């Protein structure tokens, strides 16, 4: 098996982020690897806020991205602390753009050896992979992608296995 030195943890700061992060923290600890956490703010969302502002609605579009980054950084700091990791050893990257494209750029630019991510993002759709960031990353990533399943989803999937 290839030597895993850097693990990218891709999180959307959804209901599944804590489980994904804890799973990744366990992996990096066992592997003695570095952790890079990436969260991509979808450009579509930023464009939608700009359109609302352009229509004259009072939305603080100017601070939208900054507020999201701050909120996500606060959550990440708590996750790092809860997992007992050294905050200085976890690199955090917050970007705006197309999530798949930005994650691929991070994989290449940060010399990532493995990606850990969930199969559901912020939308919490019941379908698995169809058109999702996870599905696209599984097809396009040059490195191994590990998909995290939370216990409830794992149980539902187990029940679907024919006897």
What does the model show?
- Helix content is 47%, strand content 20%.
- The chain is of the alpha/beta class and 163 residues long.
- Helix 1 links the parallel strand 1 and strand 2.
- Helix 4 packs parallel to helix 5.
- The radius of gyration is 17 Å and the shape is globular.
- It starts with 5 loop residues before the first strand and ends with a helix.
- The relative contact order is 0.20.
Which range does the strand content fall in?
15-25%
What's the story with the biggest beta sheet? 5 strands, parallel
Any low-confidence stretches, pLDDT <50, length ≥5? Answer: 122-130
Structural class: alpha/beta
Summarize the structure.
This protein is of the alpha/beta class and 163 residues long.
Descriptive key words:
6 helices, globular, 163 residues, alpha/beta, five-stranded parallel β-sheet, single chain, 20% strand
Topology:
Layout: E1 6-10, H1 17-31, E2 34-42, H2 43-54, H3 61-82, E3 90-97, H4 99-109, E4 114-118, H5 133-140, E5 144-148, H6 151-159
Parallel strand pairs: 1-2, 1-4, 2-3, 4-5
Helix pairs in contact: 4-5
